[in-house]
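Entry 14. Ran structure prediction on the chain below.
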Amino acid sequence: MTIAKEIYFLSLLICILLPNSAIAQIEEDGTTLTDIVSDPSDPNRVLIDGGTRRGDNLFHSFERFQTSPSSDVVINANPDIDLVIGRVTGGERAEILGGLTVSGNADLIFLSPNGISIGARANISLGGSFLGTTASELQLDDGFLFSAVNPSLVLGSSVTSLPIRIGFEAPTSSIVVQPSDPSDSWVDLEPGNTFSLIGGILNIEGANFTLLSSNVELGAVATNSNIDIQYSEGDLSFDPDSSAIFQNITLNRTKILTLGGANLSAGNVNIFGRNILLQGGEVSTDGGSENSGDITIVASNDLRLTSELQLFSANSDFDAGDITLSAGRNLFVSQSKIFANTQATGSGGNIVLGAGNNVRITTGIIDPSSLGAGNAGELNIDARNLFVEGGSQLRSISSDIGNSGGIAISVGDSIVLSGMGDPDGTGSLQPSQISVATEATGDLEGTGNAGNIDIITSELRLLDGASISAESNTKGDAGSITITTSQDLTLDNASRIEASTLSGEGNLLFDVRDLVLLNGSRISTDASSNADGGNIKIDADNIVALDDSDIVANADNGAGGFIEINAVGVFGTDIREEETPESDITAVSRRDPELNGTVILNTPDLEPENNLEELPEDVIDAETLVSASPCPEGVESEFVVEGSGGIPSSPGNTLSPEGLIPNDLTEPVETLERDSESSAPSDNLNSDTIAQDLGVTPAWGWVWNDKGEILLTAHDPTVIASQRLPAHSGLCSGR
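Output, C-alpha cells:
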C-alpha cells in the first residue's frame, strides 16, 4: 500500500471515529453561556444553544468557529429574539464551509477579526438579516463595546440596546468567498432583509448571490476605521465614518441579483471600498412586476468595470432603479454594459457617473432607456476628463409615447469621443456616440419628445466619425444640444453634432472659443418629412470649416431653419443657396426655394481705409541728401559701422566674406598728384590735425609709394574735385 493510500484511509477513519464537533470545529470561549451540542437526529448538524440574553439581543462568544462542507450549524433563538450577536475571539479565521442558519426570524451579526472564509458549498439561510465582518468590536447605543479582541469586557445586565457602530481597531483581515454553483445561490434570506460583508480586503470569486427583495451591502475598510450602522428589525444599512480608510474589493465572475416579486420591490446593492474591480459577471436589481432597486458603487480611489460585466437595474412594469458609480480618482468602464431600463409603463432609472479625475468608457454602453410607454431616465457625468472611445454608446432612448431622458455632462478639462467598436455585439463597427432619441415601435407612430444634451467643458473633440445627437423619429420634438467650452470645439473626420427630427424642431446652441470643422464634419438641424429645419446659434471667436465641412439647417419639404453665427473670424466656409463639395453654411428647403430659411453672420465691421495714414505728396530726392554737406545734415544724427568689413549690399543680406575687403576701391595710381587749388585742405588744417581728429577713417583709395608699397587713402586719388571729410572731423561743429 502506498503512502498516499495510507493517508487517505487514515483520514477516512478519523472522520468516522471523531465526534461531530470535529466535522464542525466550533468551541465557545466561556465568556457567554453558549452551549454547543450535536443534533441526535442528524450527525452532520451542530446546534448552538444558550448564549447570554440581554433584552431582545442574544450574545454568543466562540474561541473557534470552523465548519465543514458537509455540516449544518443551527443557532437556536427564541421567537422573541430580534438580534443574535456572535464573535470569534481566538486567533484563527472563521470558516463557513457548510450550512449556517438561525432559527426564527432573528438577525445575525458575526464578528471575526482574524478573517472570514466562505466556501463553495456554504449556504447561509436566515429569516432575518446577516452581517459578516472582520471588525474587532461592535458598539451599542448605550456605549457598551462587544469586543472580539478584548473579551474580558463583561456584559452587564443593562445592555439591552441596539448596535450603532462597528470598529476596526485591530489590524483588519480579509473576507474571501470561494466559487459556488453559478446556478444556485449560497445565500437565502427572507424578503425585506439585508445580506452584508464588511471587512478588510474583500475577494469574491465566482459566487452567486440571488435574493428576493433583499439588499446587498459589501464594504472593505482598514484599521482605525468605523462604520455606522442604521439598524431596525430586519433592516441593516451602513454609513462609513468620514475618517474611514478603505481597502480593495474584487468581484470576479460574480453574480449579485436582487429580485422583486408579488408586492415586493427588488432590493438595493451598495458597494464601498478603495480600489474596486468588477470583472465579468452581473450585478442586477430586477423588480419584475414591482419597482427595481438602486445600485451604488463608491470607490475612494479607482473603480473598474471590465470583461463584459453587466450592470442592470431593470423592470418590466414599474420604475427601474438608479445606478450611481463614483470614484475618487478614475472610473473605467471597459467592454461592459450599464442599463437602467424599463419595458412597460414605468420610467427608466437615472445613471450617475462621477470621478475626481478621469471617466474612461471603452467599447461600453451606458443606457437609462425606456423600451415601453414610460419615460427614459437621465444620464449625468461629472469628472475632470471624459474619454468615450472604441464605439462606446452613451444614450437615453424612449419608445412609444414616452420622452427620452436628458444627458448632462460637466467636465473640467477635456472631453474626447473617438474610435470604432461593437459594444452592442451586432458584428458591425460603429463610432462613439452620445445621443438622446425617440423611436417608434411596431405600428405605433410615437409622440414622445427627445431629451436635451447639455455639455460644459474646457475642450471638446469629436474624432473618427463620433457624434452627439438629439433625434426624434416620432411625432415629438427633437431635443436641444447646448455646448459650452472655454477653449476649442473640434470635429474631425466626418464627426457630427446634430438635432434631427421628423416633426418638431431641434436646436443647437454653441458658446465656444474656436469652432473647428475638418474632413467632412457636420453641424446640422436637418428635418425630414414635412418638418421645418431647426435652429443653430454659434457664439465663437473664430470658426474654421475645411474639406467639405458644413453647418446646415435644411428641410426636405418644410421651411429651412435659422442659423445665427456671431464670430470675430470665419474661415474656409461661406453662406450658400445649396450644399456643395465646398464647406457650406445653408438653411434651405429642398422642395421649395421660397421656403429657404435665414442665415445671419455677424462679424466685426472692419473698414481698413479708416485706419490708413495719408502720406505726404512731396517726394524726397535721395541724391540731394547724399551730396549735402554733412555738417548741418549730420547734427543730431550718426551712423557708425565698426570692424574689419563693410555692410551688407542690402538690408536683407548677411555680411559675406567678400565684404571684409572693400570692393569699391579705385585702381591704384603711381603718385598722389592733385591740383593744389582744388585738393588742398583749408589753411587752418594740417595733416597732423586731420589724422588726430579723424581717428579711424574709412579707405576710399590706394596708391603706390616710391618703395612699391600700397598705401590706403582716405580720399579717391582719381578725383580732382574736393572730397568731403567724415562728420567727426574738425570741419563740423561739436554736438
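The chain has six helices and 61 strands. Will compare against last week's run tomorrow.
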